[in-house]
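Hey,

The postdoc asked me to send both predictions to you directly instead of through the lab channel. I've kept everything plain text so nothing gets mangled by the mail client. Protein one:
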Amino acid sequence: MEILQLIYDEIIGFLGISQAWEILNTGNYSALKTYDGMVALIRPILPLLLLLEFTLGLIYKKPQIKVYKVNFLIYIFNRFIGRFIAIAMVVWIIGWLQPFALFQTKMTWYWFVYGYIVWEFGHFLYHYWGHKVRLFWCLHSTHHAPEDMNLTVTHAHFFLEAPYADAIRTTVCILLGVSPTMLFIIMFIDGTYGSFIHVGENILKDGRLGFLNKFILTPSHHRVHHAKNPLYMDTNFCNLLNIWDKVFGTYQEEVKEVKVEYGITREMDSGNFFDVYFGEIVALVKDVIKAPGIKNKILYIFMPPGWSHTGDHQTAKIARNNFLGKEFKTSKLRFHS
């Protein structure tokens, strides 16, 4: 019976309906006017969309079973391994660094806008380094391994990535004066939207969201980010506000003539949990072992993926520059970067 109760609790927890169910049972609808009440209403939306997306996949005969299977295994694995690490990291950093904050924000709309821009800067840094530092790519590559896009991809993460990401984002926010209360509100909004932008074509065929595509980061932008096409590689690192991608030159719109191809460039079995979860770590260890000298071994750890001590580099930057150079000579396509 304990096992059944555990399974039941996990299902309810995944669907995020426990708080909403409690409100319905008690009839205390005034709770919906509070922050916790709003969270209780919003949280179940994405899990329910995931179920709808999977159902539509079965109807359209595009269920992406391989992706769903591996991402489900990753979700279960991470639940047991890294359940509380990320939140503990956030709380510890807040307590440690808040005394060193330059100033302290208040809960006003203009400070909230400031806080969100600061959060996006922290998110950009974590995400950029996750693609440009081989060690961090080992943590982040699990998220890019799926060869299709759907809402389960938001659960495909190496268990140490959340602590690493939250350490950077929280440090930036706290030192630049974002109050802990505001930080947790921003984290909820950004986490919810960050899950939504993984929505697949079974639910949202065109991910551009109309005119919003010009002002915020949409599912279309994030599909570009998950692509292994040379044009799209290492672009669109932000989550909601694309301000920092435009500032640092990593912004890229989806181009109709360049169909998104999901996944990573390393040859892998995307239906194999161990290859998806540990494959990049294994590849890095092999490169470090084979590398001549201590310097090269260290460089393999911290240089971008594709770097080689032989000078035959195959990094995303080189691949993208080569593609752009060839296409500008042979095509009239307009590439926004």
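Protein two:
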Amino acid sequence: MVEKSYLETGNNKDARNGSVDGIGGDGDFDPSAPPPFKIAEIRAAIPKHCWVKNPWRSLGYVLRDVTVVFALAAAALYLDSWICWPLYWAAQGTMFWAIFVLGHDCGHGSFSNNHLLNNVVGHILHSSILVPYHGWRISHRTHHQNHGNVENDESWVPLPEKIYKNLDLTTRIMRYTVPLPMLAYPIYLWRRSPVFDPVQVLKIHGVPYLIFVMWLDFVTYLHHHGHEQKLPWSVFRQEWSYLRGGLTTVDRDYGWINGIHHDIGTHVIHHLFPQIPHYHLVEATRAAKPVLGKYYREPKKSGPFPFHLFSNLVRSIGEDHYVSDTGDVVFYQTDPRLRNIKSN
């Protein structure tokens, strides 16, 4: 069935070797095959202290990020220079993304063992960046429980071929042209502020919010797309499992940004065990790698800023358009018509 899916998707290298068209695959490794280990083996390899949630440490990260957010806003208002505003927008938008990650930990319960504390902090953090905390928390839990399942996942789900082929050309271009997909998160801010005039609100909060949205879409997309080796998506439940779904996620290195956005790029272990606090993810990943073997894809080392990831983003959005309606394990296919339009 796996070999059939490779042939159906037009990847014309040897399917039995797990190689994909245009990609240097490992002849002995098929990423679509069930892993030879159980999730319990990964769990057992992770040190026990990595599961411990320290609410004071978590609150310390909140204090750090909130302090930086207010300091940036105060500095921007004081300087009020069009030379400084673009720098402020980029920095503050990145900090909004860091705030989102902390609220994300609250939604997973990895912030602390106190359910009330998680919800209160999560509400405050996410409300400050216009994210509906409980709506997102429930949707994100569904994503974790069904990742890699075309029918049930809720985050960056590939379109089945039948649906994709019914899209008009304009919709296809809008959906698969950078940077438009990076603004996919709902953009609805405000109508009027009783404190500042609208232009001031736009400068202080509006543009950083758009930068945050682009970070959100950029990071979450690259957690599930754009790796050098195509990752399988399981269509039917008899082929899908929680472990197999989690193993199709990808770790990313963001250079200096790793510390700012709380190591969210360490994503595989987070997807398998979202209860682990973010400050233990790097150590937990290091401990689990011997068990994961080739199912763990080592992220490419980043410079101070993750400029290398933009090429992954552009290539993936340009190539990963839909998946076949048939087959239990399928890979993304490319719409040649859309590719030709973009290249002209």
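Summary for protein two, as requested: The CA atoms of residues 93 and 211 lie 5 Å apart.

Thanks,
C.
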